[in-house]
């Protein structure tokens, strides 16, 4: 494993932007930070900078359409910076795959991406060259084969044979011979034996977890710090990392006033052929037992939508928090792609309130409009504006404001597995400034007595509790008083089952305890 410890860990730096111009303008500094960070990470094979990878050279899907589509998706992710959840559906449609093949292609794609770090560490033991010197498509083929051998119930001979055939088509006979040799070495040991070797060869427990649970070292350290900061034992780290590598259950949101959760569950059962159940964390959630949610009528007409329970809960926490006086003007400051905005608007419609759904990126604003199409006319208005300007341009105007701030996305790695290989600690530091500016703007734009929910899909302390404390210090200097409400109590009042961290003043959800994304929520009331 000494060879593995020398492998480079350069990351392709795809952006998971949520469309704020301030972050975009700092591009040059971001690139310098990435280059510096890439130079520092030189002791793990968990990833590499792809440069200009070769194309697959495919002529069609041939006799194995599922594996070909999976390879096409992996190539788009590694070469083009695509996201699997966006690139895979059109590939499945274009390939005309039957349901069984589509399920296999999906499992291959997401499983390979989630466990890429583990497989790279194993591949590094089995080759005689640095991973950076392996052709990009060939490396994706090796990862794809490794996942079939070690992560799925595919017989070894079938996994090797199918991947070698795919390599012949995609990269040529020479590459196929190389793929065959490496995969046979991998197949020579069980997963348990490989994990034992990775643990033995790692320099410390952090590196061992990084390889075995397939996360960059900096993410392992950040998640350990987040657990401790939220009063959870360090021993939970392994379970948290493992949860990031599991398939998340598909969850539906029944938008209040448009469809009841019980009615949505009946629709889902009829359309998908699987028995769903009502959720545990959100009172308007339905946990889909299986099948394609696009077959459900309420999802097609936007009375319901696919949305994580944690995402639903934090929006409802803002909507349900007690207010004195006026309650007519709501703002979703960073609304794209629109799930929380639509949930807020459905509640607002029942109360006679209006929602401004703000999204700075025009293409994401279009997604918000689509999410809102079932909402009654006049309830919601979509704007394209810089959220940081609301505090100056509309001071004290709003009663409730949601700041679903652009973040690293470390809380949604189950759904966006490639994000872990694209982000860096430098990205988190850069986003931190934007997060604090947005929160300060929201506290200036809300009226005295009004409530702001600061939300991120990340547990990183720099993006969560520290962001709130930094913003509060800045606001205090500006003469704005803020009371930090007990978000855990707010969640307990709403959730069918209280979240694991409900005793805390600021709520942090976790995939390994709550089966949600790692959403953070702080509720803040303006007092002066």
From TrEMBL:
Keywords: Methyltransferase, RNA-binding, S-adenosyl-L-methionine, Transferase. It is an enzyme of class 2 (transferase). S-adenosyl-L-methionine binds at residues 334-340, 359, 386, 404. GO terms for biological process: regulation of DNA-templated transcription; RNA methylation. Residues 226-527 form the SAM-dependent MTase RsmB/NOP-type domain. One of its GO terms (molecular function) is RNA binding. Its EC number is 2.1.1.176. The keyword Transferase applies. This is Ribosomal RNA small subunit methyltransferase B. It comes from Actinomyces slackii.
């Amino acid at each position: 494993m000494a060879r593995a410890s020398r492998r480079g860990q350069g990351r392709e730096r795809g952006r998971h932007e949520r469309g704020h111009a301030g972050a975009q303008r700092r591009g040059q500094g971001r690139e310098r930070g990435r280059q510096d960070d890439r130079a520092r990470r030189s002791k793990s094979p968990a990833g590499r900078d792809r440069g200009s990878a070769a194309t697959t050279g495919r002529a069609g899907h041939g006799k194995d359409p599922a594996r070909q589509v999976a390879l096409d998706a992996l190539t788009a992710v590694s070469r083009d910076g695509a996201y699997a959840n966006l690139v895979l559906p059109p590939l499945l449609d274009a390939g005309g795959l039957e349901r069984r093949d589509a399920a296999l292609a999906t499992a291959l794609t997401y499983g390979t991406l989630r466990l890429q770090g583990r497989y790279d560490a194993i591949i590094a033991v089995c080759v005689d060259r640095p991973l950076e010197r392996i052709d990009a498509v060939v490396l994706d083929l090796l990862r794809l084969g490794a996942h079939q051998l070690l992560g799925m119930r595919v017989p070894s001979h079938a996994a090797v044979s199918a991947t070698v055939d795919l390599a012949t088509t995609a990269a040529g006979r020479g590459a196929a011979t190389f793929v065959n040799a490496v995969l046979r070495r991998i197949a020579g040991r069980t997963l348990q034996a490989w994990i034992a070797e990775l643990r033995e060869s790692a320099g410390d427990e952090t590196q061992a977890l990084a390889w075995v649970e397939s996360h960059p070292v900096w993410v392992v350290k950040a998640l350990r710090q987040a657990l401790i900061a939220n009063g959870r034992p360090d021993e939970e780290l392994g379970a948290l990392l493992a949860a990031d590598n599991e398939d998340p259950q598909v969850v539906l949101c029944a938008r209040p006033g448009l469809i009841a959760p019980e009615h949505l569950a009946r629709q889902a059962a009829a359309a998908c052929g699987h028995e769903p159940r009502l959720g545990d964390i959100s009172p308007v959630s339905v946990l889909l037992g299986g099948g394609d949610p696009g077959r459900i009528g309420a999802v097609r007409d936007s009375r319901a939508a696919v949305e994580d329970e944690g995402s639903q809960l934090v929006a409802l926490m803002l909507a349900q928090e007690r207010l004195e006086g006026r309650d007519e003007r709501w703002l979703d400051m960073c609304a794209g792609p629109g799930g929380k905005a639509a949930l807020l608007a459905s509640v607002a419609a029942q109360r006679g309130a209006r929602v401004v759904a703000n999204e700075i990126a025009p293409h994401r604003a279009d997604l918000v409009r689509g999410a809102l199409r079932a909402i009654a006319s006049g309830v919601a208005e979509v704007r394209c504006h810089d959220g940081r300007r609301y505090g100056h341009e509309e001071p004290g105007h709003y009663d409730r404001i949601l700041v679903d701030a652009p973040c690293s996305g470390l809380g949604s790695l189950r759904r966006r597995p490639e994000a872990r290989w694209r982000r860096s600690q430098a990205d988190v530091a850069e986003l931190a400034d934007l997060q604090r500016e947005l929160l300060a703007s929201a506290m200036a734009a809300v009226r005295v007595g009004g409530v702001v929910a600061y939300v991120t899909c990340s547990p990183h302390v720099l993006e969560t509790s520290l962001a709130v404390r930094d913003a509060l210090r800045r606001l205090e200097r500006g003469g704005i008083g803020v009371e930090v409400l007990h978000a855990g109590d707010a969640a307990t009042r709403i959730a069918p089952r209280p979240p694991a961290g409900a005793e805390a003043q600021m709520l942090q959800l976790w995939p390994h305890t709550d089966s949600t994304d790692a959403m953070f929520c702080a509720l803040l009331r303006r007092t002066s």
